[in-house]
Amino acid sequence: MIIRKLSETEGVEWGNGLSHRFLTLRDGMGYTVTHTVVRAGSDSALEYRNHLEACYCIAGSGKVIDSAGDEHVIEVGTLYALDKHDPHHLIASPHEDMVLVCMFTPALIGDEAHDFESEYSNY
C-alpha cells in the first residue's frame, strides 16, 4: 500500500506552475497522479505525444482550447481528458491559480518539465 500526503511530496516546477507527483513510474502502478497548480494568467501550449492525461479541477478556473480553436471553461468540478494526444492550450484565469488533479498513463518518471520554446511543449 502506498500512502502519500501533499505535504510530503516534492513539487516539480513544470513551466507554468508546480506539480506534486504522488505516483510515478518507480511506484509500479502504471500511471501517475499529480496535484498541479497552474499559475494565474499563464497560457501553456501542450501536447503529450507519449502520454494520455485526464485533469479534474479542484480549485480556481481557466479554460482549455482544443486544436480546432474551441474554448472549454474549466472550473471546480470539471474534468477534461486528452484521449487522442490532443494538442491544446491550458489557460489559467488571470485572477487566480487553477488547481488540477491529473492522471497520466503511462506513468511519468517524475521530474518532467515543459519547454515552451516550440509550438507545443510535451513530455
UniProtKB/TrEMBL annotation:
Pathway: Amine and polyamine biosynthesis; ectoine biosynthesis; L-ectoine from L-aspartate 4-semialdehyde: step 3/3. Its EC number is 4.2.1.108. The keyword Transmembrane does not apply. It catalyses: (2S)-4-acetamido-2-aminobutanoate = L-ectoine + H2O. Keywords: Lyase. It comes from the Bacteria. One of its GO terms (molecular function) is ectoine synthase activity. GO terms for biological process: ectoine biosynthetic process. InterPro entries: Ectoine_synth, RmlC-like_jellyroll, RmlC_Cupin_sf. The keyword Lyase applies. Transmembrane segments: none annotated. Belongs to the ectoine synthase family. This is L-ectoine synthase. It comes from Amycolatopsis vancoresmycina DSM 44592. The lineage of its organism: Bacteria, Bacillati, Actinomycetota, Actinomycetes, Pseudonocardiales. The gene is ectC.
